[in-house]
Each structure stands twice: as structure tokens, then as C-alpha cells.
Amino acid sequence: MTDEAATAALFKVYEIIAHWINLKGNYKRLRQEGKKLKAIRDAIEAEICKDRITPATREWIAKAKMIESEVKDLKTKYKNEMGHPWRLVRIWAYPILGVEMKEKYSQVHSLWEEGNLKREELDAELPEPVLKRHAAKIEENSSLHMAVQDLLSFLEDEQIRRVGVWGTVGTGKTTIMQNLNNHEQVAKMFYIVIWVTVSKDWNVEKLQEAIMRRLKLDMECFGDVEENARRIYEELKEKKYLLLLDEVQDLIDLNASMEIHNNIDSKVVLASRSRCVCYDMEADELINVKRLSPADAWNMFQEKVGHPISSPLIKPIAEQVVKECDGLPLLIDRIGKAFKKKGKVVSLWRDGLNRLRRWDRVKTEGMDEVLDFLKFCYDDLDGNKRDCFLYGALYPEECEIYIDYLLECWNAEGFIHDADELVDDTNAFRDACDKGHAILDALIDVSLLERSDKKKCVKMNKVVRKMALKISSESNGSKFLVKPCQGLQDFPDKKEWEDASRISLMDNQLCSLPEFLQCHHLSTLLLQRNNGLIAIPEFFFDSMRNLRVLDLHGTGIESLPSSISNLISLKGMYLNSCTCLTQLPPNIRELVQLEVLDIRGTKLNLLQIGNLTWLKCLRISLPSFFRGTRTQRQFGSISAFVSLEEFCADDDLSEQCWDEVLMEEVVTLKKLTSLRFCFPTVDFLKLFVQRSPVWKNSFFTFQFCVGYQDNTYSQILESSDYPSYNSLKLVNGEGMDPVIAEVLKVTTVFKLVNHKGVSNLSDFGVNNMENMLVCSVEGGNEIRTIVCGDRMTNSVFKNLEVLHINNVLRLRSVCQGRIPHGSLAQLMGLTLTKCPELKKIFSDGMIQQLPQLQNLKVEECHQIEEIITESENIELEANTLPSLKNLILIDLPKLRSIWVDYSLEWPSLQRVQISECHMLKRLPFNDANAAKLRCVEGQQSWWESLEWEDDAFRESLQPILHLQIAQPQVCM
Q1: Which residue among 67, 219, 612, 630 has its CA within the 20 to 30 Å range from the CA of 188?
Q2: DSSP string, 285-337
Q3: 573 close to 547: Cβ distance less than 8 angstroms
Q4: pLDDT value at 91 more than 90
């Protein structure tokens, strides 16, 4: 072999070995690059929902998958070559395979670089976790701030999935939602926050579109409802998200819209004018956004107006401006911006205030938007609800209107349509009342009416009332003359009243009325509480043939004129508290449409109204029955009123006045659905229960008082604040009569006053009190405990919600012995007052039975040393009082402890009031166990004497602290 040949052969061998080495290197590089390509493709597909991937990205993914397949083929080919038994013979194939791998590596690397860029682009297209919204600043510790804090705590609670925020227009619901959206704590809780403002003309498709745009899904593939719901669900299925829905007006089926039920970690907060909508949306918790307090309203107005308000000339006017805004944040915001432009020019501020007071008649800057919002609420009502709403404007702003009275007026006016057809003509009056309650609740749900602190009353706020008056003034068929509480001494001019359909001049100083009132369209006339009005002109009612409601109660009239007979459409007449009224004209019998008559507190007797036998509701004073001789009474007997559905006679009488005649009269009334009555003794109650045909009627409601009492107590149970409840009040009685047990079985509100012969409520039979919701015990020297748990096996008072104990002088404990599980499980309010021998409140583990307790008040119980007795509540669970919101402790001179340490949690506690508890030196609260604490009230000296383990917590309470400086006692 020549040298050249040898050299060539060696070079060939070297070349083959080099290709073999390169082949292994190319294979290794290709395999690594293939893994990188697959990893970035997987990341893109995993992180970016396929519904958001653009066509260009889809093309890249397709290329990547194709090349991954080609790489896989090359890997297989390589392994086959390396494992071939004749691989040394086939070594010539290595260069070809190596070149293929090298070229494929270049393609894979290029595609990987393109994928890196693509991923960066796609990451930029991901929806931001939170889109900040322009939100009005809310003051620390204001009611709006508290609402945001409550929402945050609800979002942290694993058991709460949906929260409803509701309240009238302009109270700040959207502001609360915006501040919640922007809160840094929310950004830490959720992967993404989705905000949707739900328009009035919303539908499922529009909601889905808004959510999909927020998620940046491909809108070119917008499909039907089911397909869109699937796409939204796929995008969010493994993500914890918060859905904020603002201005919700109707039920939204979120399961149909986005399959939300499949994501148990996510939350929904919705804001609505309607409480019912929140219920329909299955909200676990509700927050009622009410008007701002005067202090919060002033702070907000100051912030909006700025420096001009500091002027001593401007400030008094500014305070009146804020008052006109009635605590509505939306109105304060708009009016504040308008008044800021007035600078420090006093005349402009005065003019602005005057215009604001007359905004229902004069265009006022800042009011239009608010008026539009309120008008929108009104337009959304059904026809009869609109009439009922407008009727509320006849009463003074913030006036407490008795619900029963208001419903009777609505019914008399004909606003409650087709009431007779609801159930049975036999109880048409009650059926109308039931339907009226449904309308009332609807108006309350949209905050056009508000419940007052008294549950039996409602009221209308200033701004809403002005809007109602403006609407009525622009209506062709419903002109109002409304001037209550204006100190009027003279009746308004003819031009004001001649076309009026409703006139309200209540609470003035009218002493006289026109001789003749030409009001053919008048349907309601409200003149109540004009004390100086002592006479009504003879022909005053001549033209009022369409009058349906006449209220003269609390006036000084002595009689009614004969022209009253012209009121042939009159359905409701209120003469109560007309203490001088002694006469009615004989032609009163012409009032054939009259259904409701109230003559309590007058000097009228039954003989004078005896012809009105068609009355559906009659309210009298018991002395009315006993005026006149027995013969006269027979001609004016209760039994003559055969159509009565509601009868009220709630005055007390001396025992000498009573005989069985009255009771015999009452038991003959066969259509009664409601009776409010005072029985002098248990025997008279027994007579009614045994002989009345209505007693066994399951729809029959009652408010009974049994026994005589002095004037320090109201005659009928104060819990008439619970108007739909059956109430029984026993006064100065003794022992336990079987008829009491029978009545107790259907009683929901029970009060015991100065009763003898029982040592605890259990003596009345715990099985007789299963339906009891409210219980009050007052006075008496024999009651030692309220519930005796000894020898009991079944739960007691399991439905009781409110328990009041007052002036029970020998009371030693609330519960004696360990009560069975489930007892007092629904108790929400406990009040203990003036029980001088009471030493224990939560003894024998009773505290563990109170999961619903929200309000606890203890006052003037001078032997109390511990609220939760440590020795009798060993190993308490941390969350023992999960619902307690308000804790009030007043004049407890020996109180040393609420609880011994910080081991208990107070997750719902919002308000603590402590007064005259000078030995209480430590509080069992801190940042961790009482996060919702919003208000601490007490005396300056007590606060300064408290001992603290955590000074930081003490400082954190400063903004919510309300201290009083104790007044020095004056010795006389």
C-alpha cells in the first residue's frame, strides 16, 4: 500500500470516527433543544387559555408539534442505528444522520427563540390581576370604611361565598365596591378580580361578554350561552377569583353564565338597591348601606369643598347644606363640588342653600344626577307600588308612620288591587293587609321607604320625599297639597287646594277651617294633631264625595258636622285622641263604605256608632262600652258589628266596671282575625278561649293583657313592636292556670309582670313555650332563675330570640343547672337590668349554647363580678360567641372580668360600651381576636386606668374611641 493510500485510509477512518462522535453530540444537542421547545410550548398552552391564543400563535404551536414529531423520529432512527448488530458496517450512514440532526437542531433552536418571544407577547396579553378603578376616598372609621372592612372579613371566611351590599340610591354602594376592588388585601387573596357593572338592559350574553373581555379571551369565537360559559369556566377553573357585580337589578344565574358552582374557592360580591335581589342571588351575608351619620356627612362635605368651609361666615350655612343632603354620599359629592365653586362669597352660599331647599321646584346644580337616579327607582315600580310610594310623602320627613295605619290608608285609596280575590271574601280586610305588607316590603327592599327603629313603623327620608313631591306636582291626576309641621295658623289659599287630590296639613296650629271646601277630587284629608282645631264648619264636607281617608285624630273637635254624611266613599276615619269629642250626627249611618273607625280616647259610646255594623276594623276604649245605662248598651253592642275582622280595646278598667256582658259580646264575633284586648282576670280569658269560634282558627292573631296594673306600664305588651306576633302579658297574676298554658302554646311574645307563685319560667311548662320568640320578665320577688335545667332531657326555649329581664329582685342566675343541648340556640338578644342579687350570667356551660347571640346588655346588677364565670366554663372553645356584635356593660361596680385572658375569639364584635365599671381593669380583646371592633365607648377615667399587655392595640383603638368625662356629683 502506498503512503498516499494509507494516509487516505487513515483520514477516512478518522472522518468516520469524527462523524460518529459528531453524531452523538448532535443527538445530545438536538434532544436538549427539543426538550426546551416542548417545555415552552407546554408553558404557552398551560398559561394561556386556548380561547385567547391568536391565529399566529396557533400556527407556531402547530409547527412546534410537527418539529417535535420529527425530532422524535430522528431520535428513534438514532437509537436504531446505535443498536443495529451491523452498526460497524453501517457506519457510512452516520454522516447523513448527523447532518439531518444538525439541520433539525437549527430549526428547533429557531422555533424555540420564536417561542420565547411569543411567550413574552402572550404574557403581556394576560389580564391584569386587578384593574384599579377611580374610587372616591373614604374616611377612616366612617360607615363606608366599616362596610369595606366587613366585606374583607367576609372574603376571608371560607364558609361565605356570596355577599350582598344593598341600600337606597346614593348611599355609597358603588364607592364601597370600588374601594374593595382597589384594596391591596384583595389583590393578595385572589388570582384575578373581575368587575362588571350590570346595566338595566342586561342579559346573560352581555354579562358573558363583559367577563370574557376582562379575561382577554378571543372574542372572534363568541358563541352561544353554553359555549361561552364553558370557555369562562375553563379559563377560571383552577384560579381563585373575585367577581364584583355592581348595580344588579334582577336575578343573575351565575351557574348558567359561567358555571360558577364548580369553583368553590372563588367569591361574589354584588351591589343592588334591592334586598330581595341579594336574597335571590343566594347571598350568605348582607350589608345594608345606610345614610351617613351627621359627623361622616360633614367630614365628606368638608373634603369636597375644601378651604372655603373654614370661614366662620360660611360654616353655619355649610352645616345647613349638609343637613339638606340627608346623609347621601352621592348627593354630598355632587352638591359639594357645586358649592366649592362659590368660594367664600356668603351671598352665593345663601342663595345655593335656598335653591337646595326648593330643588323640587327650582333647578339646582348637583341635584339633576341624583334626581335621575331616584326617578329611575320610581319608574321601575309597578303602578300600584308607585301610588303607595307617593302616598308616603304626605307625612313629614323622617316621620315614623305606623305600618298598620299606612296599609289601611293604601287600602282605602284603592291602591291594593283585587284584595278581595286573594283568598276569601270572608277575610277581605285581612287579605288586603297581607298584600299591603308585600307592597311595603317591596318599597323597603329598594330603600324608597325605611324601617324605623320601632319595628311597627316606617319612614321616608328627606331627599326621597322631595322627589316624591316633585313627581306628584308634575302628575295630572295626583296633585298634593302637603304642608305638615309648618306652624300654619290659617288654612291655605283656595288656589292651592281646589284641585288637590290629597291634602296633608297635620301637626300645624290651625284653629279654623274654611266654611266650604270645594274639592271634588279629594281622596285623603289629613288634619291630625292640630290641637287648636275645636270645630268643623257645618258644610265643610259637602263637596267631598270622593274622600276615602279622613284623619282628625288629636284635634280638639267636640263634634262632627252633619255634612259628614256626604262622604259616601269614606273608608277610613280616625278620631282617636279627640278627647273633647262627645257627639256624632245621626246621619253618620250614611257612611256605608266605612271600614276602619278609630275612636279610642274620645267620649263617644257604642250607641253613637251602633248603625255602622259593616265596619271591618273598630278600635275603641273600653270605657266607651260602659258609658250609658245597660239598656243603652244593648242598643250599641259589640255583637252588632257582624263584619268585624279586627277589634281593638286595650284600655285598662277598674275591676268594678267589669261584668260578663262585654265578654259575651266579643265571643259572638265570628269573622275576627285579630283581637287586641285587656282581660281583668284569667277567668275572662278562659271565657273567650272556651266560647269564641275564632280561637281555634290558625290565622287568628292576638295581643292580650291579663290583669290590672298601674300607669307605669303600658296596657298591651310593648312588643306590639312585633305587630304580626301573638303576644300575652300577665300582670300581677299568681300561679299557673291551664288556660294560660293553652294560650302560651300559640304565643310568640310573652311578658310577665309582678307575677307570684312561680320561681322560674319553667313552671309554665317548657313544652308550652316552644313557639316563643320574645320573652320579658319584669318585677316580682319570687323568681330565682329563668330556666331550670334540673331533670330536663329535651331542649328548652329553642326558638327564643330575645330575652329581657328587668327589676327581678331575687334573681340569682339566668340558668340553673346544665340545660340540654339545643336550648336557647336561637337567642340573639339578652338584656339584664336591675337584678341586685344576680351573680352569674353564663354559668354551667350555658355560654356554649349561644351561637346566635348578637347583643348582650347588663345594667345595674351590682353583684356581678364576671361576665363569663371562669370556674364554671372550663375548656371553652375559642369561638364560643361567634355572633356577638354589641356588648354593653353599665353600672356594674363589682365587675372584674369579662373573660380571664385573650383565649376567646370575638369574630363579630363591633361595639363595646362600658360605663361605671371601675373595677374592670383589663379587656379580653386584641388585634387578633377582635378584628371587627368598630366602636369603644366609656368614661375617660376608666379608660386611663386600664392595664394593657399590648400598647400598640391600645393605640389602634384611638380612632374608634368615644370617651365621656364623668360629671362630678353635686351634693344637695
Answers
A1: 219
A2: EEEE--PPPHHHHHHHHHHHH-GGGGSTTTHHHHHHHHHHHTT-HHHHHHHHH
A3: no
A4: no
What does the alpha-carbon distance between residue 377 and residue 361 come to, in Å, rounded to a whole number? 20
Residue 5's φ and ψ, nearest 5 degrees, are -65, -40
pLDDT of residue 19: 52
Alpha-carbon radius of gyration of the chain: 39
- pLDDT at 118 > cutoff 90: no
pLDDT tens-digit series, residues 265-295: 889 999 998 888 999 999 999 999 988 888 8
Beta-carbon contacts of 501 under 8 Å, excluding residues fewer than 6 positions away, are: 477, 478, 479, 480, 521, 522, 523, 524
| Secondary structure in 3-state letters for 202-264 | CCHHHHHHHHHHHCCCCHHHCCCHHHHHHHHHHHHCCCCEEEEEECCCCCCCHHHHHCHHHCC
Does the pTM surpass 0.70? The reply is yes
In this structure, are residues 162 and 264 in contact, taking their beta carbons and an 8 Å threshold? no
Cβ(481)–Cβ(500) under 8 Å? yes
> Helix axis angle, 346-357 relative to 315-325, nearest 10°?
20
Task: Give the pLDDT confidence score for residue 462 in this predicted structure.
Answer: 85
Cell (9 digits) for 73: 423520529
Q: Which helix (H) or strand (E) holds 166?
A: strand 162-166
Residues 6+ apart with CB under 8 A from 858: 831, 832, 833, 841, 864, 867, 888, 889, 890, 892
> Which of helix, strand or coil describes residue 775?
strand
Q: What is the DSSP string of 947-960?
A: --S-HHHHHHTGGG
Query: Over 90: is that where the pLDDT of 915 sits?
Result: yes
The length of the chain in residues reads 972
pLDDT, tens digit, for every residue of 850-877? 999 999 999 999 999 999 988 777 778 8
Which residues are bridge partners to 165 per DSSP?
271, 287
Q: How far is CA 554 from CA 409, 506, 508, 509, 533, in A?
A: 18, 10, 11, 12, 9
Render pLDDT for 409-468 as a digit per residue (tens, 0 to 9): 999 999 997 644 544 566 788 889 989 998 998 898 888 898 887 778 999 988 888 888
Partners of 676 in the beta sheet?
A: 648, 703
pLDDT tens digits, one per residue of 575-632:
999 999 999 999 999 999 999 999 999 999 888 998 999 999 999 987 765 655 554 4
**DSSP code for 734:** B
**Contacts with 262 (C-beta within 8 Å, 6 or more apart), sequence order:** 233, 237
Helices and strands, counts by H and E, the chain: 28, 30
CB atoms within 10 A of CB 434: 17
